[in-house]
């Protein structure tokens, strides 16, 4: 079935590529690269086009998660990526670690082009936060107000609108809002059930710790399984919510949160989680699980923290949320550092990065 699928996709993709107007360049993201790298190379020969591969990871390393690194299919996929990767004219990649690995193992020369957050990933004003929380409160109990409101006022667990002035204010004694996202595939270190003791530990010590609302977004094949595990948990001060958000609400949620948590572990150890790029675009500090090249994005004790296990994450959460919502702690300092970093670096558009890093490769043709 797998072989048949590759053959059918090869014919379909080649048919489409030969019907389009003659391109000067064919830009291909990898993965997925099987069969698209070979098909794009053939189409390039037909059209006389240059092939540019944008390496975001290795397809064979993702395949190895389910089959193991020594499986014949994985070894074949690695040989395929190495062979056809060398036939490209130009190569881009998302980290310096991948650029070095491409040269050492594949003899492919690449240019690093870091991912950038889209312009709509930014801090969310308080009035838009209120609108989002009120919308989510209709379907999700953790967002609902926890105290009685005065006549004419409306409110959520995090914000309320004053009945007389109409101003939106942060709710007194509000919980902290922690956000994570996952594709629910098992490729990430989801903290259930073995790591839930890390969350339990939060409730045992520290009277100055706030209540915590953990929002885990995304959809995938194992979501119902993990939701079943979550429902068996009985925390006193922690609520876990697994909403499916509309596309326009996800940036608003990141811009409203107090802390992001990233459980992504790269299959190759050479790519960076886009979810953290988006969080940083919203000036949201992050706790991220360690892997080899994560330091190219998350600077420990500067814009977030890196942890290796649930116990270390629990200690970091306790430290960051101590005396919440004080403006004097590390959480606020990380946010200020992200705001400062946005000015010269993050505010640089993706188009500007392209012009500086990629256009010089293409020369006078474009």
UniProtKB/TrEMBL annotation:
Its EC number is 2.4.1.142. Keywords: Endoplasmic reticulum, Glycosyltransferase, Membrane, Phosphoprotein, Signal-anchor, Transferase, Transmembrane, Transmembrane helix. It is an enzyme of class 2 (transferase). Residues 209-338 form the Glycosyl transferase family domain. InterPro entries: ALG1-like, Glyco_trans_1. Its main location: endoplasmic reticulum. GO terms for molecular function: chitobiosyldiphosphodolichol beta-mannosyltransferase activity. It is a single-pass membrane protein. GO terms for cellular component: endoplasmic reticulum membrane. Pathway: Protein modification; protein glycosylation. It is found in: Endoplasmic reticulum membrane. It catalyses: an N,N'-diacetylchitobiosyl-diphospho-di-trans,poly-cis-dolichol + GDP-alpha-D-mannose = a beta-D-Man-(1->4)-beta-D-GlcNAc-(1->4)-alpha-D-GlcNAc-diphospho-di-trans,poly-cis-dolichol + GDP + H(+). Belongs to the glycosyltransferase group 1 family. Glycosyltransferase 33 subfamily. Mannosyltransferase that operates in the biosynthetic pathway of dolichol-linked oligosaccharides, the glycan precursors employed in protein asparagine (N)-glycosylation. The assembly of dolichol-linked oligosaccharides begins on the cytosolic side of the endoplasmic reticulum membrane and finishes in its lumen. The sequential addition of sugars to dolichol pyrophosphate produces dolichol-linked oligosaccharides containing fourteen sugars, including two GlcNAcs, nine mannoses and three glucoses. This is Chitobiosyldiphosphodolichol beta-mannosyltransferase.
